[in-house]
Amino acid sequence: MVPVHPPVTDPALVASLRDDLVSSAYDVDGVEDVLGPLAAAALHREQALPARRALAAAVAGKPAADRDPRATLATLFLLGEPVPRGALDRALPGTGTAGAERLGLVAAQGTEDDDAVRAVVDLRPYSSVDAVGDARWWLASDLGELATGGRLATDHVLGAGGASLTLAQVTVRNRVGRVLDLGTGCGIQALHAARHAQHVVGTDISHRALSFAGFNAALNLPDGAELDLRHGSMLEPVAGERFDLVVSNPPFVITPHAGAAGRAVADALGDYEYRDGGRAGDDLVRDLVLGVGGVLAPGGTAQLLANWEHRRGEPWTERVGRWLDEAGLDGWIIQREVLDPAEYAETWIRDGGTTPDREPDAWAAAYGAWLDDFASRDVEAVGFGIVTLRRPASGAPTLRRLEEHTGSVRQPLGAHIARSLAGHDWLATRDDDALAAAHLVTAADVTEERYLTPGAADPNVVVLRQGDGLGRGVHASTPLAALVGACDGDLTVGQIVGAIASLFEVPADALAAELLPAVRGLVRDGFLEG
Fold first, then answer.
1. DSSP line for 72-93
2. Of 397, 407, 421, 432, which is the most exposed, with the fewest CB atoms less than 10 Å away?
3. Does residue 2 register a pLDDT over 50?
C-alpha cells in the first residue's frame, strides 16, 4: 500500500503542472469530449463502466507516447486506474511523472515508459457558475470510493460535491473586504470567495484538508495570491476578528454521538472529519447560528448549508426560528429537502462508502443506532436547506423568514438572494406613502399565466411566474396583475392604483389598502424592482 499524503505545494512545479493541464486540454469540456455524452453523464452518477469503455477505446492500439493526454489523465485521476509512465510524461510534458511524484500526486512503479503509474490523489477539472460568472479550475482531493472500491478513510478530504456546488452558487458575491470560509475542506468556497474579496481566511479542523486547500490555491489563484489558512475548530481560529462574509459547509450531519447509539456508529463507521461535528443532534448548526454573529462586521452576511431536526409536535419553523431570535441576526432560511429518519440514515451511511453488500454487519449496526438516536429525541424527519444570516448595520433585526421551497431553482441563486435582501432593505425605509410614490419596474423574467374555463371571458386564476431565482408563482387578483403589467417606471405605484380604481369603479383608498401589501411582497421577492 502506497502511503497517502496531501500534495506538496512547490511553486515552480505547481506552475508547470498548471501549464501542462491547460496544454493537455484537461478541463471539463475536454474530458466530456473524450468520454462522450453517455459516459460523461454516467460518470457524474458515479458509474464508471461506460467511462472505462470509452477511455479504453480512445487509447486502443496506440503506444504510450501517442495517447490522448485527456484520456490518460482521466483514466489516472478520475477512475484511479494505472497508466503507462510514457503516457503520463506526454500528458504532463513540463512536469513529467517525476514532477508529479514530487508533488505527491502519483506513485510510479518504475522508470521505463511501460511501467505503471497510479494516482495518489484525485485531481479533476472543475467548472461552475456563481454570481460573479464562470469558474474553471482543477481541484485536488482524496481519491473517492469509485477509484478505491471501498469505504472512505475517516480523515478523507472531499472534492467538490453536490453540497459544495450548491453553496458556491447560492452565495452572495458582492465585492467585500474580508471573507471567512469556515470548514474549508479542499478550499473550493475559498477559491470562489477570492474572486470578489480582498482577503480570504479558510479554517478547518483537519491539517490534511488545509494542505489540499493550500495546493489548490497555488494551482488556481493568480500568481502572488494566496489564502490565509488556519487550523482549528469552528470559530475558534478567528475569535475577535470581523468578516464581511462568512460561508460554511459545516460538518452538519446529524450522527449519533452519545450513549449506546454513538458507540455503535463509532465502532461501525468511525467519525468522518468532513461531516460528523461531534455534537448531539443538530446542536452544531444551532451553535453556529448563535455564534457566527460574533465574527460578522456590521452589515456582514453569513451563508451556510445545514440540517435540522423535525421533532414530534413542534413545527420546524418554530424550533429553528428560536435560533434566529436568540442569535439577534437578520435571518432567511429556505428548507430545500426533507428526509425521514430511515432515508437520512441510509444516505449518510452510504455516503462514507459503507454498503449492505460489502459490509452487512457494519451497515446494520450503524442503521439501527441512527434510528435509535432519532427516536430518543422524537425526530420525525430531517430538513436540509440554506441559511442566510446578516448582522444589522444598526438597530434591531428586521428580517425573519423561514420557508420551504423544494422545487427547482435557477442557479446561480446568489444574485437573486442579494437582490431580495436589497429589496427588503429598500422596503424597510418606506412606509405606504413612500411606496405609493415609487416608480417600479416589472422584472424581465416575470411572466403571467391565465387559466380560463372553456368559453369563459375572464380567467379563473392568474399566476405571476418568476423565471429566475426560486421560480416563485404568485396568485394575483385581476387588479394586482394589471398593476404589475403597468409597472414600466413611468408612473408611480399610486398613479397606477388610481387608474385601476377608476377602471374598476372602486374607491382608490380601498384598492391601495388591498394592493400595497402585495406590492411589498413582490418587491421583496424580485418581481418588481425599484
1. HHIIIIIS---EEHHHHHHHST
2. 407
3. no
